[in-house]
């Protein structure tokens, strides 16, 4: 029996090509996708990795063989695929491995209107069909195959985003953008066209071998070039996109990274103002205390969720939330079919900065009120045992609140921490925040001593 457990993750398909999967399996994934979604038409796009065009076309063939019409939008960012799924009201598949190294590829799938597909919403059924057909042969083709046609969506995607943020009256800004040889190099020129921006491009050449650095701005090593360039250019800010350009990271005019929590708070305040000072904002449990504070100050209702885009999107749909943000720089918008788009968050930052005379560091100071540790990973042999030891150490202490919505969160009056187990590696992930650096460091070191004992 073919076992796809190593490449079918919680929210997507991801693995090494051709060692773990190839075009033959991609074709079966295409057939399984249309069988599970019941679609009679789908949309498919891909990133700039060398293996992406072949895998994407194989997926399209597998779908078309079952009588389904396929619209190929070619090179695109993941949020551009979500736009196409929403705008055309079709299930979609994006071929990308996001920030993973060049030898990886994957598929992010959604139902019509960019509704996510994960393990509990169709992905496990897709996996089962592919495993079955890999053993028994492809499913019986339809009497008449579907058509495969091409469509350009970048222009409409850019226009749609620019219609959601008023940029007409911003002052001229100098912005350095590091696309990391990923899909930001494809989308940024069109989205930014005609705006009063002096664009300084870095690594805009589409190259899925990532010759300059990994396209993962969450790793501080990968934004060093951007930070240096912002300072050299005297730029107003810098933006860094990941490989499939669905996440956006921001650095200020000093080259200092801006916390994604601060960006979440800033965008939340703007979205609440647009909605007349009312609305629900989703944030995961390891975003800063600043986020719910700013939401309440601006008339909104904060809702705390587990980490992970499927949980954010579920809560957005259930609550009718207008916006959601994560510590990982994923930003979700009701106006974008509840899907995540780093590009729209970037436009909000440009509008906020360009709409006043101060610097970005001054602007975000009001949204960045606490000191955070960042995510600290510890390799442990016994995740459950070490987590239980941490819980036992804090349980029953006066003035502390414990909850287990996602891992263990311990909160005091002036600090909190969250300890979560990785689903895919033998790691415990620690995030700590406090009102001052000394307290944060004390709590951080105390918890790490228990984790690593």
TrEMBL record:
GO terms for molecular function: intramolecular phosphotransferase activity; metal ion binding. Coiled coil: none annotated. It comes from the Bacteria. Pfam families: PGM_PMM_I, PGM_PMM_II, PGM_PMM_III, PGM_PMM_IV. The keyword Metal-binding applies. Keywords: Isomerase, Magnesium, Metal-binding, Phosphoprotein. Residues 375-449 form the Alpha-D-phosphohexomutase C-terminal domain. Residues 6-134, 156-255, 265-370 form the Alpha-D-phosphohexomutase alpha/beta/alpha domain. Belongs to the phosphohexose mutase family. This is Phosphomannomutase. InterPro entries: A-D-PHexomutase_a/b/a-I (IPR005844), A-D-PHexomutase_a/b/a-I/II/III (IPR016055), A-D-PHexomutase_a/b/a-II (IPR005845), A-D-PHexomutase_a/b/a-III (IPR005846), A-D-PHexomutase_C (IPR005843), A-D-PHexomutase_C_sf (IPR036900), Alpha-D-phosphohexomutase_SF (IPR005841). GO terms for biological process: carbohydrate metabolic process. It comes from Streptomyces indicus. Its cofactor is Mg(2+). NCBIfam families: PRK09542.1.
